[in-house]
Specification:
- The radius of gyration is 18 Å and the shape is elongated.
- It folds into 2 domains: 11-76, Winged helix-like DNA-binding domain superfamily/Winged helix DNA-binding domain (Arc Repressor Mutant, subunit A, Orthogonal Bundle), CATH 1.10.10.10; 79-121.
- The chain contains 5 helices and 2 strands.
- By secondary structure, the chain is mainly alpha-helical.
- A hairpin with a 3-residue loop joins strand 1 (64-67) and strand 2 (71-74).
- The two termini are 28 Å apart.
- It has a two-stranded antiparallel sheet with strand order 1-2.
- Helix content is 62%, strand content 7%.
Length: 122
């Protein structure tokens, strides 16, 4: 399992994020079966309903789908959808904030670019 449940987000959201990360990293390829809610519940020692809430969040987004009597599977195109969603979140959470802060500090675009390049090589 790729992370421990210990941050400030609700547990069901952490379960959903864990599945998303596994899809993005190729651990869960498209059309592969995801662990059952009972497996998540047992591993993390949580209520199966909490695990189901995280899984159902991804079903509602079209990332996972249910095969009746078999379990949940990663939908075709799920990785591309997640990549686009995460890129937009990255832009909104980091890039916009960084540019706003750079403007406050009088950092020019060339200076900002230099800082980013330096950070990428360290």
């Amino acid at each position: 399992m790729s992370f421990l449940i210990d941050d400030d987000r609700p547990i069901f959201a952490q379960i959903a994020a864990r599945i998303e990360n596994d899809i993005l990293e190729g651990i869960l390829p498209e059309e592969s079966q995801v662990p059952s809610t009972n497996q998540f519940a047992a591993y993390y020692k949580i209520n199966p309903a909490t695990a189901a809430k995280g899984v159902n969040l991804l079903v509602d987004q079209g990332i996972l789908y249910k095969k009746r009597g078999i379990g949940m599977f990663v939908a075709s195109g799920a990785r591309a959808v997640l990549m686009e969603t995460r890129k937009q979140q990255f832009y909104e959470q980091y890039v916009v904030t960084m540019v706003q802060e750079a403007k406050k500090l009088g950092i020019t675009f060339p200076q900002l670019t230099e800082m980013i390049e330096k950070g990428a090589t360290e």
